[in-house]
Write a structure and sequence with these properties.
Blueprint: H1 14-20, H2 23-34, H3 36-72, H4 80-128, H5 131-134, H6 137-152, H7 154-180, H8 183-212, H9 214-227, H10 230-238, H11 242-294, H12 300-342, E1 363-372, E2 379-389, E3 393-398, H13 404-411, E4 419-424, E5 427-428, H14 434-439, E6 441-444, H15 455-460, H16 470-480, H17 482-486, H18 509-522, E7 527-531, H19 539-552, E8 557-561, H20 565-568, E9 573-578, E10 581-586, H21 588-594, H22 597-609
Parallel strand pairs: 3-8, 3-9, 6-7, 7-8
Antiparallel strand pairs: 1-2, 1-4, 4-5, 9-10
Helix pairs in contact: 3-4, 3-7, 3-12, 4-6, 4-7, 6-12, 7-12, 8-11, 8-12, 9-11, 11-12, 16-18, 21-22
The protein binds adenosine-5'-triphosphate.
Adenosine-5'-triphosphate is lined by residues 135, 373, 376, 380, 398, 400-406.
Subcellular location: Cell membrane
GO molecular function: ATP binding
Domain ABC transporter: 364-604
Length: 610
Amino acid sequence: MEPARKGGKPPLSFDERFKALKNLPEFFKLIWQTSPKMVLANVLLRVIRSAIPLVTLYVAKLIIDEVIRVTQSEAPQSLNHLFMLVAIEFLLAIFSDILNRGTTLLDSLIGDLFANKSSIRLMRHSANLDLSQFEDSDFYDKLERARRQTIGRSMLMTQVLGQAQDAITMVFLAAGLIAFNPWLILLLMITVIPAFLGETHFNERSYSLVYSWTPERRELDYLRFTGASDETAKEVKIFGLSDFLTNRFKVLSDRFYDLNKNLSMRRAGWGSFFAMLGSAGYYAAYIFIIIDTVKGNITIGDLTFLSGSFFRLRTLFESILNRFSSVAENALYLQDFFDFFNLEPSIKVNPQARPFPNPIREGFVFENVGFKYHNTDKWAVRNLNFTLRKGEKLALVGENGAGKTTIVKLLARLYDPTEGRILLDGHNLKDYNVEDLRNETGVIFQDFVKFQMTANHNIAVGRIVEKDNRPKIVHSAEQSLANTVIDRLPEKYDQMIGRRFADGVELSGGEWQKVALGRAYMRDAQILILDEPTAALDARAEHEVFQRFTELTKGKTAILISHRFSTVRMADRIMVLDKGQCLEIGTHEELLAKGGRYEELFNLQAEGYR
Ligand SMILES: Nc1ncnc2c1ncn2[C@@H]1O[C@H](COP(=O)(O)OP(=O)(O)OP(=O)(O)O)[C@@H](O)[C@H]1O
């Protein structure tokens, strides 16, 4: 086997596996909270069910003894007693079936509820985490494992409850066997324990394998998605990427298959050997009991009862031990689940925060602000010193990668500066509640989300509490020109857009942008940020949008990012960025007069239009 790879753990010791069991109480607390009534009913049914095997075996013994008594008797005998015993066994069988069905039903209902609740918790928790955490691949692996846990974990409940049920059944059966001969119990243990240790070993290997392969499995999922999805089909065809993607998939999946096959084969080999050992133990005990019966020490009914008990005990013991190692394994996975929920965001809601200014009095001041993205040593922006005055419209220009979007993200506190600080009305941005800041900020990013939802909701996301306020949504659509798109859709505002779901209608890039821009008009925020809001619009639409732009930003503090100078010149001031630093800042006229980079870029673009 390959050594543990990056992001993987070395195989865990027996001790660590035991420690993982400490997650069970917390887990059962969550299960209990899912539905106390159903969990209680489940436990009760299982307790009753656990007594049935012993009672059934005992009734079977009575039946055999009665049959022998009747057949060996000289005088004719009434069969009433015998039939009554058979009737009892029959009723027990039916009762046991009903109880089984009941617990299976409850298990699956509780499991479904638990999976739903966990998914909701996962979504909520993810929403609270920092953006930078999402950009970290270790985090992604954790999220991935937690996501898998939300569905699979209810199985663990079935296992643990099954374990308790079998343990009680065993106590009942063992009592009978011990009364006959305590050595039989010892024989039982000797034959079953090696199998348990073997299972435990292989479970641990399999966990380590799955764990260390999380990044690759994520890549496999990604390749599967890229190779077969509507979003990528266009480029996959044009560039002929199918072989490239499938080959990479094949290499990875074959490697995982080989490692897994190796493990499964060894597991099967050892498993057969241990099963043989178990059977040998059973037959040794059987011979022992037969000899005692032949000697006349016990009845034939006792023989069936004891051999039956021994057989059941062996099966139960094996399943308890095997299940134990699988419970421990599942508890290890549970650790990932809890680890994810224990992740804390660094940008948190601050209960002692100062109230957000309404209206903003002075504006923002960037004091020597620098920022590095997670896991890189490169400064995305540095030494930024500038003000964004209340009610001012500031445009950011600069080449790709100059740091424009980064400034916007810092302003909306999607990240905090690595050095320096940002002040709002004289106080650090961190002193305000991040939720208030975001409520007062409307951002339309260049890579805005194309929500696969109705046109109505696609605009309403700008202010989701107003999702039922149709007049406001229509008004926003009119302002952003999205109405020209929506009015042509068969279902108008109730039209599903995007291709993912049935009856969805796909829009062009510019049409999507008009819809996304509508979100800015929905938002009654004091700060408005538009990151390349018109990049995909045709010339006429861009012109119209900008005629309305003054109205949209009236009374608001706004940042506008654009590569089009016709757009940029509408701002009050313009900041030119270069490699994360502020090169020059001033009004359009000032910068032209200065004859610096702005003038150069402006003339370059104007040249292109002549
Ligand atoms: N999530 C990220 N992780 C690491 N580095 C990043 C990340 N986002 C941006 N960067 C880097 O930070 C620098 C600034 O990026 P930013 O997105 O702010 O540029 P921009 O001026 O908005 O560019 P564009 O005009 O292409 O939109 C770039 O060098 C980029 O590579």
